[in-house]
Specification:
Oligomer: single chain
Structural class: alpha/beta
Number of helices: 11
Largest sheet: 8 strands, mixed
Distance between the termini: 38 Å
Strand content: 15-25%
Strand order of the largest sheet: 6-5-4-3-1-2-8-7
């Protein structure tokens, strides 16, 4: 996988939108056998270098997805793996019992994913080679960051050395929604995939329609355990799970989840195909949720334009400079601000009014919805009257704003 960062400032990940596209970086993706090889199905080493260079010319940062936990299935024929071509480079076989994986750290860090040989990072040579490899590919291809697969299946002390060798921003994949568990891995990585918030968004905006107070509860939980919540990777879809629209067929609810991902505290991650409304499931193994994009790419699709509008507002108002401040919450609405931007999300298709009294705007300020410029409200002494209708989220910004006003407001917000 390649991840693409769009940002106006190099290395400033908090201002970045992360989007991912399905591409194998190592020869066989998550089940590599030749770590230094580029998958010939996608081109040559020179092609990859050229792609990264061209991305950089366009202000796009490229993040590479890497695996240091295991290699591909070779049925004991380790001579097929380069450079880890000996049995002693791996832990002895034992299967992961998934029902007990979080209560048994030894099993989690030593046992195998199915037939995938599990690398033994306690072996000094293996440890050294993995660090040498990540340093080489980051510097050779000029990658701007790494996404680290299967982070909980390798000891944290190794990851600390691994990310130091990489020398770039990292996000570790930790598939667990319990903040007390997931947060442990931020000892090693700059960022962690934010499964704690993903699972709440899935339950609040998905079929369950849990109360919106759950968002508040989970945010408080995240702040209790994580040392830096502002860099956690937020997402509504990813390549390991059935897509949001497979489980919940409502476009308005998906838009609410996307709005939270883009404007909520953290780094937004948009899985390719979300902008096309892909709805693949994952009944058995991988595949249906990893649809082919090319041939289906439509820059005029409703969701493409919706995401583009949200991203443009995120960038224009530089929301990463301002805290996520809860402004209003009921069972069916969660509203918050990021600087000048007021974000209102709902899990109800009903029409209803709320008055937001705690908001931070001067009285008389005109606010307009970025998704419907004709939907404008004025800040009154009693607060801001908002009509939520049809289940759609609303993102309000000042109707008329100068750069001078923006700068002054951000200082005091």
């Amino acid at each position: 996988f390649f991840y693409f960062f769009f940002s106006s400032r190099r290395r400033h990940t908090r201002s970045s939108l992360v989007s991912w596209a399905r591409r194998c970086v190592q020869e066989t993706g998550y089940a590599m056998t030749k770590m230094y090889n580029v998958n010939p199905h996608f081109g040559t080493e020179a092609d990859l270098i050229e792609m990264v260079n061209e991305a950089h010319k366009r202000g796009i940062y490229v993040m590479v997805d890497v695996v240091a936990n295991h290699v591909g299935c070779v049925n004991g024929q380790y001579h097929k793996v380069h450079p880890f071509d000996r049995a002693e480079h791996y832990h002895p076989y034992c299967p992961i019992v998934w029902e007990k994986v979080w209560e048994n750290r030894w099993m989690r860090e030593n046992c195998w994913f199915a037939c995938l040989p599990d690398l033994d990072q306690s072996n000094p040579w293996v440890r050294s080679e993995l660090k040498k490899w990540i340093n080489y590919i980051v510097n050779h291809y000029k990658f701007d960051g790494i996404r680290v697969d299967t982070a909980p299946h390798v000891p944290i002390d190794f990851w600390k050395e691994f990310v130091d060798a990489a020398g770039v921003f990292q996000i570790g994949e930790v598939v667990n929604e319990v903040s007390a568990i997931t947060s442990e891995y931020q000892q090693a990585f700059d960022s962690i995939t934010n499964y704690p918030i993903f699972n709440v968004l899935e339950r609040v905006f998905g079929r369950n329609k849990n109360i919106m107070y759950d968002i508040r509860t989970r945010i408080n939980d995240i702040h209790k355990y994580f040392k830096d919540p502002e860099v956690l990777g937020n997402f509504a879809d990813n390549h390991d799970l059935s897509r949001f629209l497979h489980e919940e067929h409502s476009i308005p609810m998906f838009k609410n989840a996307l709005v939270y991902v883009i404007f909520g505290e953290g780094i937004p991650i948009i899985y390719y195909g979300s902008e096309q409304g892909f709805n693949g499931g994952k009944p058995n193994g991988d595949g249906p949720n990893r649809e082919t994009l090319w041939g289906h790419m439509d820059q005029n699709s409703d969701l493409y334009k919706f995401i583009r509008t949200a991203v443009e507002a995120r960038k224009r108002f530089q929301i990463w400079k301002s805290k996520h401040v809860e402004r209003y919450v009921l069972n069916n609405i969660y509203a918050f601000t990021r600087g000048l931007v007021l974000i209102c999300t709902t899990n109800s298709h009903d029409s209803f009014w709320v008055t937001i009294g705690y908001h931070g705007y001067p009285e008389g300020t005109k606010l307009c919805n970025i998704f419907n410029p004709g939907d404008c409200v004025f800040v009154q002494k009693k607060g801001i009257d908002i009509n939520m209708a049809g289940g759609y989220p609303k993102v309000y910004v000042p109707g008329q704003i100068t750069n001078q006003y923006l700068n002054l407001y951000l200082i005091h917000i």
